[in-house]
């Protein structure tokens, strides 16, 4: 088991689609032993609306709205308890699971971020929520979280089944190194997982330039492997893949994941190209959008 009990914030919106995220959390062995907080931000009726109750013509309507809100809160409480029970049945300790239902204050995404600042190690979310449009890959709340939640990893659950195969994109950058450390801390104690380290180089070079220094792919792989093995992960379960001459780094990563049936893709939020005008790295952003069915862990 991990030496430190990690805390995972699982954001749920009350939809059936969101319950798929709960199933993922239950199936992912890496989350066993973590403390998981199930959070729902409730869209309560603004208090100002109830001021209308002072108007005789509005009394009936306001009372109907009050009744609707009470009923919706009951539905959400039952939904969250059901989600908690799903995790218990999947093998999570009952004492390690908590439910938080919070009235919306600043907005759903911002309220999730506020909660995430309270000592969590990662946030687990779904690509799309209850009001998802068919052709939209990432929903509005998830998109806002990917943009603004930049202090802990964001785990974006996909539709692929959990298969204990993790593809980690590395490029020698500090953020990519933190991504490897997060994987090491999360699965280092698990001996039946497979990890593939992947370097993608655009053009014909066989190395990467970092702060004016050229790093060979062998150096990058050796450093990442050392981090994983130091956490107890078996060296024989680590493989490496270098791709050169790629047109798109994100495209190469997603294609490799598809062909190799890698269930989870791990990327650093920002790689070597630190462009301030982008809310997150171009590669990590493209991986989330291109890998429509993939689970993607984005590490800051």
From TrEMBL:
InterPro entries, A to Z: Rossmann-like_a/b/a_fold, Universal_stress_UspA, UspA
Superkingdom of source: Bacteria
Pfam families reported in the protein's UniProt record: Usp
Residue ranges occupied by any UspA domain in the UniProt entry: 6-150, 164-290
Protein family (similarity comment): Belongs to the universal stress protein A family.
The protein's name in its UniProt record: UspA domain-containing protein
Source taxonomy: Bacteria, Pseudomonadati, Thermodesulfobacteriota, Desulfobacteria, Desulfobacterales
